[in-house]
Design brief:
With 139 residues, the chain is mainly α. The protein has a single domain, classed as Chromosomal Replication Initiator Protein Dnaa, Chain: A (Orthogonal Bundle). Helices cover 62% and strands 3% of the residues. It is built from 7 helices and 2 strands; from the N terminus they run ββααααααα. It has a two-stranded antiparallel ribbon. α2 crosses α4, α4 packs across α6 and α5 packs across α6. The radius of gyration is 22 Å and the shape is globular.
Length: 139
């Protein structure tokens, strides 16, 4: 807290030491942007989503679409990587072996489906689970 002195007759003065300190402390709790840390995010999100959707993790990375259930699980995983961890579409696309436009489509599709209250609750639970699992959150 800055040292502030006030007198009954004069204006409030801020000490020189308080002026020298930065107004905002450095963000130490923000997720790291280093590629090595980012590489660990997608596999963890995939693990959470495949557990919830009860699909094989290998199907998530397959070059084909797969069943509608696998496709939805992949879209949810891409959405969570973008929303919870603020990863770019291009980075998510590289991690999933897809194009960035495919990731953008997945995010739009999941966002549109969140109008359904049950689906929204499921995604919110996955957001919390993925964030707690990895110990990181986008700010």
């Amino acid at each position: 807290m800055p040292e502030i002195s006030a007198s009954a007759k004069g204006p409030v003065e801020v000490s020189a030491a308080a002026k020298a300190r930065p107004a905002v402390s450095p963000a130490r709790n923000l997720p790291s942007r280093r590629p090595s840390d980012r590489k660990a995010i997608c596999p963890r999100v995939i693990a959470c989503v495949t557990h919830d959707f009860r699909v094989d993790p290998g199907c998530m990375m397959a070059p084909s679409r797969g069943s509608p259930r696998v496709s939805l699980a992949r879209q949810v995983a891409m959405y969570l990587c973008h929303v919870v961890f603020a990863m770019s579409f291009a980075a998510i696309g590289r991690a999933f072996g897809r194009d960035r436009t495919t990731v953008a489509h997945a995010c739009r599709a999941i966002e549109d489906r969140r109008d359904d209250i049950w689906f929204d609750c499921r995604i919110a639970a996955l957001e919390r689970a993925c964030g707690v699992d990895t110990g990181e959150r986008a700010r």
